[in-house]
Specification:
The chain is α/β, with parallel strands linked by helices. The protein is built from 16 helices and ten strands. Helix 5 links the parallel strand 4 and strand 5. The longest helix has 15 residues.
Length: 317
Amino acid sequence: MDRRKFIKRTSFATVGVSLSDTILQKLFASTVKEYNGEIPKRVLGKTNEKVSIFGLGGWHIGNIKEEKIALEMIAEAYDLGVNFFDTAFSYNNGTSELRYGKAFKGMRDKIFLMSKSTQRKSADAKKELELTLKRLQTDYLDLWQLHSIKTKEEVDKIFSPGGAYETAVKAKEEGKIRYIGITGHYDPYANLEALKYHKLLDTIQMPINLVDPNYRSFINITLPKAVEYNLGIIAMKTIANGKIVEHKISTAKECLTYVWNLPVSVLVSGCDSPAQLLENITTAKSFKKLSKQEKESVLMRTKNLQFEEVEYYKNKE
């Protein structure tokens, strides 16, 4: 099947608007059930773990100049109901992981902690995982994701004998990780290639935002299969690294609300300040189901954009 036919078969009925009414109704039902004035929770795919629909992004935590402020933001996120925390070995030369390690010392069992590795060979991935655990001051990760895939060849390396997936499996057997996932924000077809191995995966993380349906779309190409395989779907680049707001396409609140109206388990977003964190959490607590007309109205603003500029990370080598 060529790409054009595949897109036609897997696209939403209205591009970017509706994947499956049954899936969405189930998500909304669980969201309302868990709501009660707090951050809603959803099930993370086949893991059956309940995670807050907002997850704190780790890159920004490592990038904040004053560690004291970063640690206070982590604590504030937890106090306000966030239980999903994201980081990666490569973020800020380890600063992100080190800060989470300090923040969650003595309360590890109260959160869902994820880290990631860009290594493709088993031995290299093992070294990174061991240092990640040391930095985070923990014996285990809830989720470890093989990070930032770009090509079919990279996917093959990861899952071939001697690839990073071998380390993930062994670490799971040893109790060092609970679940295994994969991420990519360059090419939706690379993510789609990884879904050949869906039985070996628990989660997938990818760009999901309101401009994505128009350009190299993860929503149209990858998301339908991820839903079909019941993977935990982790949304990233929800505001396209700030470009959607910068180009005055939409507000941050509208961006988050739109993504939560798609079949995602958790939206991971970085916050540059305590004020931004509070704004995002307030938006999560006031989550509402959008009508078809409301979603279409938001999407109409994305017409005639220079998508390569807004979603520049899809072209980054």
